[in-house]
What does this fold into?
Amino acid sequence: MEGPSLYLAANQLKPFRGKTVLSVSGNTKIEKERILGKEVKSIFSWGKHLIIQFDEFALRTHFLLFGAFEAELNHSTLTGDYKRAYTPRLQLDFENGNIKLFSCSVKFLETRNAKASYDFTIDIMSPKWSPDKAFDSISSKPDALIADVLLDQEIFAGVGNIIKNEVLWRVRIHPETKVKEIPPSQLKELIAETKKFSLLFYKWRKVFQLRKHLDIYQKSICPRCGAKVKREKTGKRNRISHFCPVCQMGDENLDQPNLS
DNA sequence: ATTCATGTTGTGAT
DNA sequence: TATCACAACATGAA
It folds into this structure.
């Protein structure tokens, strides 16, 4: 699950702010009983994390590859694509509804203000996100492959494999291009496009229409030039890159008009 | 039936 | 010490 989905979750769960947890269940091994009777102070996301802040501690959730959330508000579905039949990792019940968190990692943060410990300037969905900071962080890793850099949660918190592939396709950069091989102007374009696409991802995900808007991820033909899409494990992270071997051939000169 | 993938963390070897 | 390969976790779609 990528950053925009978490940002969406945090937004959709806002009706539970100020509500008290009436019952707790789930197959998590953490001491979930301590949540009983506590009031939800705030809910927010950072990168791929969803954080529920209580008075003296916070609950941090990470959905990894297969995680999901569902919620009901006043007996109708608030969010969730369908009803899962299996036991949630953690379920919180309120007087106005419930939150179910599936197949995720959950952890307590011993703080009254978890939000203060996160750097939102690197969170792709945050209004505080800084393209200049991203530029500096990326530039400090000249030999890294751009496919790895986009997945680096200390640079682009919230960016996952879908966003990585779609953005690289949009700016026509080969996933195995080294940072130092990318001209500054194109790197800035990449950074701006990452933010732009993440907002689109959010918009589409909200109405369950993400898939139909993807151009390169799990596609067989490049919609721009018709070439057969390549899939290769790339970089140190060994994640699959989906790219067009024609549009993204890594020859920067072809992107620049020849003015001589 | 089998494989793969919107991801991260920890362990043990090199 | 740093880096790496691999395992573990967990679900649903192709």
Observations:
- The longest helix of chain A spans residues 184-206.
- The two ends of chain A are 47 Å apart (CA to CA).
